[in-house]
């Protein structure tokens, strides 16, 4: 078995206190591997989003350890954690905050330039990624000129541009129609396989099940089941 790229050990996250105490993650331990797309399922309020935010360095757990690419992320100082996340982690959320004034091409080029890329190289990467997500013909369109599904694909292309080895997605297809939902599911799966990424994806969407290497179900902040569906 390969080494795990994300390791959570005995992680606890609570909200509130006394009568209103909620245990969103209850001594949860987990190992996640590169080149795999793992789905997280479970009832509303079971702790799925909290899992992503604790493993992704967005929300500090009360106790336990989280190692990402061998580094104990919650032992880092805030600025270091921000840098680590920016360098290695990609996030896909339902609303992705594209800039209204930028074209699809610019949405990808500008962050790459900000991270130090030369314009010509950034522009070539942006064009290749827009092709990969099926939007080469939309490179000069702004968000208002595209559908929700197309904008979601631009956001995924932007996320993939920095070649993250760790990708967290929270309900990435829930607002999409069937065709766009399939495209996004396929893109996340391909990112795991082609770019050797670890993809952890929270979803209620059964369309994603066929793309999964592994399926976790969470109940009451604990892992209830952990299965690997047989490949067709
Ligand atoms: N910031 C917060 N403050 C207080 N309680 C919170 C907060 N965030 C989450 N919770 C609570 O923690 C529990 C787990 O929430 P979480 O969002 O992780 O669940 P989920 O499985 O992602 O739910 P859903 O499927 O509805 O998105 C819930 O009971 C929720 O109400």
Describe this structure in words.
GO terms for molecular function: ATP binding; ATP hydrolysis activity. The protein is an alpha/beta fold. The protein has a single domain, classed as P-loop containing nucleotide triphosphate hydrolases (Rossmann fold), CATH 3.40.50. It is built from six helices and ten strands. Strand 1 and strand 2 form a beta hairpin. The mean pLDDT is 91. The structure holds adenosine-5'-triphosphate. The site of adenosine-5'-triphosphate (ATP) has 12 residues, from strand 2 and helix 1. The site of adenosine-5'-triphosphate has 12 residues, from strand 2 and helix 1.
CATH architecture: 3-Layer(aba) Sandwich
SSE class: alpha/beta
Integer average pLDDT: 91
Number of helices: 6
H and E string: EEEHEEHEHHHEHEEE
Order of the strands making up the biggest sheet: 6-7-8-3-9-10
Instruction: Report the uncertain regions.
Output: none
Identify the bound ligands.
adenosine-5'-triphosphate
Span between termini: 22 Å
Protein name: ABC transporter ATP-binding protein
Family: Belongs to the ABC transporter superfamily.
InterPro entries: AAA+_ATPase, ABC_transporter-like_ATP-bd, MacB-like_ATP-bd, P-loop_NTPase
Keywords: ATP-binding, Nucleotide-binding, Transport
């Amino acid at each position: 078995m390969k080494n795990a790229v994300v390791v959570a050990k005995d992680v606890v996250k609570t909200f509130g206190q006394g009568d209103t105490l909620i245990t969103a993650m209850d001594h949860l331990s987990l190992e996640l591997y590169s080149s795999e797309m793992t789905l997280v399922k479970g009832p509303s309020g079971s702790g799925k989003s909290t899992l992503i935010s604790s493993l992704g360095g967005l929300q500090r757990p009360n106790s336990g350890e989280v190692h990402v690419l061998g580094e104990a992320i919650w032992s880092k100082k805030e600025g270091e954690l921000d840098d680590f996340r920016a360098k290695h982690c990609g996030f896909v959320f339902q609303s992705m905050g594209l800039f209204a004034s930028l074209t699809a091409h610019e949405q990808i080029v500008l962050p790459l330039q900000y991270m130090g890329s030369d314009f010509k190289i950034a522009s070539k990467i942006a064009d290749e990624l827009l092709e990969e997500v099926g939007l080469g013909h939309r490179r000069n369109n702004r968000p208002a000129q595209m559908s929700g599904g197309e904008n979601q694909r631009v956001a995924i292309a932007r996320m993939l541009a920095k070649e993250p080895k760790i990708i967290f997605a929270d309900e990435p297809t829930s607002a999409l129609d069937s065709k766009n939902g399939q495209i996004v599911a396929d893109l996340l799966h391909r990112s795991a396989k082609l770019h050797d990424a670890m993809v952890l994806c929270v979803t209620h969407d059964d369309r994603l099940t066929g793309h999964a290497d592994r399926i976790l179900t969470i109940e009451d902040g604990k892992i209830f089941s952990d299965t690997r569906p047989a490949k067709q």
